[in-house]
Amino acid sequence: MSPLSSPAIIVPETLADALASLAELGADGTPLAGGTWIMRAPLRDEPMAHAYVALGRIAELRRIKISAKRVEIGASATHAMLAAALERCDDLAALRNAAAQSANPAIRHAATVGGNLCARRFPAPDLATALLGLDASVEVADAAGSERLTMEAFLAARGALGPGRIVTKVIVERTGHRSAHSRLPLRKAGDYPVAIVSVAVRLDDADRIVEARIAVGSVEGVPRRWTALEEALAGQPIAAVDVAAIARPRADRFTGRDGVEAPGWYRVHVLPVLVGRAFAALTSAAT
């Protein structure tokens, strides 16, 4: 596309129509939700698509369904909508705080859940990191049907999903875990955090850690689990364990990326402190 030409905008009313349009457009079409990532494509030297299929009028993609067993989050729900919907869901505090703290208020009222997951060159997605820690799954659809992927599988495969497919919803099972979200922003460099740590733990009757899921974002190019620390914390009493001390010799499992807001070594250096803060939030919330 010429830099002076404008892309076509298609505005379907239903999910079926959106999927049909994307199937017809093939590689020339791209879904458009909040647009907070796409609008800055020229600043990243990325070409605009020939056509965008806007999803904002599709009601089912904006719904958030909450039950005692699970939460289903439409891909076009904004960060602000999600934070408000989860106000009373203390077991999902990590996701609630990720939605409430990311970027800035203006962005939170426009940026969508699906956009946060699908921005492949965005290394600091709060929601994707929190959802990884909560073992969420992602529903992806095209004109032929839909499939459900684990968050880990989705993050690994999203660059190869091909044209015509969109994220329709995210599903989080409510399993009784406690969760917390910790991030380190540097305001002078913008809204992107230096590092993100999101945790979810399951405890036994003696408040020992039976299972820990620890997701790290912004340190590398894509969020991923800190499995070495998860394994080291199994069986530890949550109220007495020094998580930062256990994390420190295991931080070298990450290779920090250099960026305008911080060098790679510093991103790795702050991880023990951040994960310690997240676990401190878990224990304080339980008292």
UniProtKB/TrEMBL annotation:
Keywords: FAD, Flavoprotein, Oxidoreductase. SMART domains: CO_deh_flav_C. Transmembrane segments: none annotated. Pfam families: CO_deh_flav_C, FAD_binding_5. Residues 1-177 form the FAD-binding PCMH-type domain. GO terms for molecular function: FAD binding; oxidoreductase activity. SUPFAM superfamilies: CO dehydrogenase flavoprotein C-terminal domain-like, FAD-binding/transporter-associated domain-like. PROSITE patterns: FAD_PCMH. InterPro entries: CO_DH_flav_C, CO_DH_flav_C_dom_sf, Diverse_Substr_Oxidored, FAD-bd_PCMH, FAD-bd_PCMH-like_sf, FAD-bd_PCMH_sub2, Mopterin_DH_FAD-bd. It comes from the Bacteria. PANTHER family: XANTHINE DEHYDROGENASE SUBUNIT C-RELATED (PTHR42659:SF2). This is FAD binding domain-containing protein. The lineage of its organism: Bacteria, Pseudomonadati, Pseudomonadota, Alphaproteobacteria, Hyphomicrobiales.
